[in-house]
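__Record contents__

***
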Amino acid sequence: MIPASLTDAGRDVVDRATLGLNTQVFEQPGLPLERVEQLTELLGELRSGAGDHVAVPATSQ
């Protein structure tokens, strides 16, 4: 394994990219809420099947 680290400039790029993705993609996916909930459930099933711990979304409780 090769150790790696981010520079301050790299962290700034990550922060801007994260903000852009959250604002432009995840907050406004272009789907009705019901479809977003269905998609979230399906992705949770895939992740769970791959061994990830998946929390139950608040809307399903």
About this structure: The longest helix spans residues 8-26. The mean pLDDT is 89. Helices lie at 8-26, 33-49.
